[in-house]
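Worked example 2:
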Amino acid sequence: MSDKALLKISGLHAYVEQFYILQGVTLEVPSQGAVVLLGRNGAGKTTTLRCIMGLVPKCSGEIIFSGEDIKGLPPYEIARRKITLVPEDQGIFALLNVGENILVSQRQSSSRGELARRLDFTLSVFPDLKLAWNRKAGTLSGGQKQMLAMARALANENHLIMLDEPSKGLAPLLVKGLGNVIRQIQANSAVLLVEQNFAFASTLGDTFSILSDGKTVLSGKMSELLENSETQQRFLGVSANEGLRR
């Protein structure tokens, strides 16, 4: 593993209730750019993100972030280290309006000037949310809810943003716009992306890591995976005509 990596995971094992989900995950995320975590349903991708965020109590192994082993820390301490997770279910507060959802997510340890600057940046990335500022989050469309979930992450300065299936359930046009947003995020933060849509993920990730049955089975450059249809089919179930060339 590189000494310059922002996040290093080694020998990660995890139980969820009685189920042995992670059985040896190794992963590295650089300080900028995107790493895509791939694998079939049930491979352990979401559990890996939840372990990093401190949401799975029964984890063993190493989770090193900026040189510190954060495994075992409570989620709020991990968030203070400028790590955030946008979960698959979005995690927004349906009964609060858009503005309240964003403002309540901001870390109050930041200065007022920094909070205002982050808010301006967030609304420049998601101008539709500025128009819907006073709308209840529960009344938003699926695409708008995904925007709001990501806006809550952008409203703070984060060194690592983890996205769990952000394109799930979105129309193709919205997925294209989502890709543009993730590219903007990559310019200032590291991104760890879990994504079932391989065609979409392959346009965003510089590198990839594939999980199978709770283990890391392959990592490398995305450009190399795009040229290897046999690996795509074996571990991801991607047929030849589903592959994407950048």
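Residues 92-157 form one domain. DSSP finds ten helices and ten strands in the chain.
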